[in-house]
Specification:
There is one protein chain. The protein is 39% helix and 17% strand. With 531 residues, the chain is an alpha+beta fold. The strands form five sheets. It has a five-stranded mixed β-sheet with strand order 7-8-9-10-11. Strands 12-13-16-17-18 form a five-stranded mixed β-sheet, with helices on both faces. It is flat, with a radius of gyration of 29 Å.
Amino acid sequence: MLPDAGISTQVREALDLLTNTSDLESPVPAQVRACLEQLACPVPLSYLEFLHAVPYVNLPRLTLNGIGREDLPSFSVLDAQRVACSIQADAARLIPLRVRDDGYWICIDMTCLGECPDAPVRVFELDAPSGMTPIATLADGFAPWLLEQARAWFANTEIIRQSADRFRRHVETAEADGSIQHDGTGRPPKAHEWNARVARTQDVRQGQWVWRLDRMNDLIEIDVFMAADVPELRPLETTRGILCYLGAEAFRLGDDVGLRFTSGELPASVGALCAEHGIEPSAGSGVLTREEISALMLSMANLSPDTLSAAPDNVAAEWLVQLVREGVWSASEITALSATECPLSVLLACDFKTGRATASFGCSIARPIVSLGLYERRLQARVPEPGEEPSLLDDTERLVEATTGEPEDVWAFRAHEDMTVPWATERRVLEAGRPLTVWSVAPTPSQYPHVLTKPLSAERLASFVEAAHGLPALLLPSDVAFLDSDVQAEVEHRALDAEVTLLIGPLNQRALDDEYFARGFLSRRSLRTWE
């Protein structure tokens, strides 16, 4: 069967866009024949034309399997099909084009078609029970899908090139007027002047952007926004970082300052991030309002918009997001702290010399929350099994959901895999999906050594167990291990009577206080950058 003229034109146009920037040599016919003989299904003529033209596509933001190369088997459609069949036996009539970052497979679907000019391109989740049921159809044929991918890639490449040129011109202008000098003698740009910024990890650029304040319209204008996709990081992570920086600048410069992209539309990565967090820009023309920025930043830090409802007016979303991003407080800790009686003083950890009473009050509020936060981190830590090769990001951290409740010193945890409960005085195994409800009791020193009478009364324990979901547990600081033996026995007896698992944390009250003040010092440094 001869290729359809329209299909052939689409494939050639796509290949022209892609191969103009590639030095790949076309495969020899014998290589293509050998590949076709080993494939478990026929191929549409549109994909056959692709195989004759290039061995594979490996470009920034666009990869496609072909016959591959001996030194690069990862781009072999044969190897990809073998892997697909090992996951799903019925995948023999799929032609895998690539595997997306989310684990979904993009394939030419030959299940209902034999030899034909073209076949649909669909998305599959092969490791799901219904793996051979397509999740979505991306195009009715490989040729139009390839052309769409090539055009989008080429347009994006042009945007990157133009943005890089604009960034270079901004830097040259700043150097010419003296606001930037390599020897450090230049003055910093003012808010209404163009500011060029670069995000780096060691010597690798991950993002660069240029902005200035439009005082007339209360908007930060963004002329350049370039965020790299870093394979080692989760998708859109660089975009998150740049938007947090710009959100912080918007907060610093005024209460109603928003963001506007000079191109007149949101960059693709910013639009994808807004969609991921359920933010629908209302102003159009590439504008994010102050309310949308605050909602986006809170969502990026896994904080509910309700987090601010009980906080004073001078606690802003950008503060909380930055504290979470810098690891000063976790999202769960921030949520609990913002519901306390003095959230700002707790976040800032007031100085002993200037506010001894307030500092003591802050310690009593923060101590159980800090203890719970440390326990959440301990639950998330995952040690690979013997013989298992840990990856940098996935296998060293366990996915744990943490939910703060009422009161703020009770949290519920839920893991997606069986695990041994850490810090328990007796070995306990928590089944996957079963909640672990933890009550953190970190009393003031005056409540020792009175057997923690008020916190651990029989009535309080019974009320906690009744309200708890799943496995109830009691978290105490390590001080309890240094009490008299009869006091320790009383604590254990009360927990046993109430059928509560006893957890002994690694830190005592003094260490928890020190941890609180150490975080307060870091939080003051973070907040000071926006004063």
